[in-house]
Design a protein that fits this description.
The chain has 181 residues and is an all-alpha fold. It has 6 helices and no strands.
Length: 181
């Protein structure tokens, strides 16, 4: 399958996700939510879309069933998180526009060319990095957020992120290392 076909599949496969999540939500009518909390909601929503996109790619490209299951779990749980973030944003009267940035799009393009154990290793390594980054983001909000509801949301999601980080590390250990000459 050539690259254009892969991208077409990826684009069409993600259109429902992008149509649902790549939209602006309500104008910033209530400025009472502190900026760090607003920033958390926006970044967390963007990160969820990124992990949904990576999970969709894992469903198609992964060699290992454990990688595909991990991708499925990323899609399912991040869609739930995304929905909760959108509801939270609407309740707080803030706008969020959720789109992948150019580097994320380039990374998806690169990973779409990979197959088998090579894809599995790169995907799960990236997911370790992403779960570590998400953990820092959610932990900071959970510990220091000024808005009680946003802080509680972050605290509720954090154990799941920590569990997925642990799971990704275990999966990586089970992927065969490439043979080096």
């Amino acid at each position: 399958m050539n690259i254009a076909r892969r991208w077409r599949w990826l684009l069409y496969g993600l259109l429902p996700v992008l149509a649902t999540f790549g939209m602006a939500v309500a104008g910033d009518s209530d400025r009472s939510l502190p900026e760090p909390d607003r920033s958390f909601i926006r970044q967390a929503a963007k990160d969820s879309l990124w992990q949904i996109s990576l999970g969709a790619l894992a469903l198609k490209q992964a060699a290992g069933g454990n990688i595909r299951r991990y991708g499925e779990d990323m899609i399912r749980e991040n869609q739930r998180i995304q929905g909760n973030l959108i509801s939270l944003a609407q309740g707080k009267g803030i706008s969020i526009e959720i789109m992948l940035d150019p580097l994320q799009s380039q990374t998806l393009e690169y990973l779409a060319r990979e197959r088998g154990a090579g894809f599995d290793r790169q995907y799960i390594s990236l997911m370790i990095d992403e779960q570590e980054r998400s953990g820092r983001l959610y932990r900071k909000e959970s510990d220091h957020g000024q808005d009680r509801e946003t802080r509680a949301f972050a605290g509720d999601v954090l154990p799941w992120i920590d569990e997925q980080l642990k799971r990704a590390r275990e999966i990586l250990l089970g992927i065969p290392q490439p043979f080096l000459k």
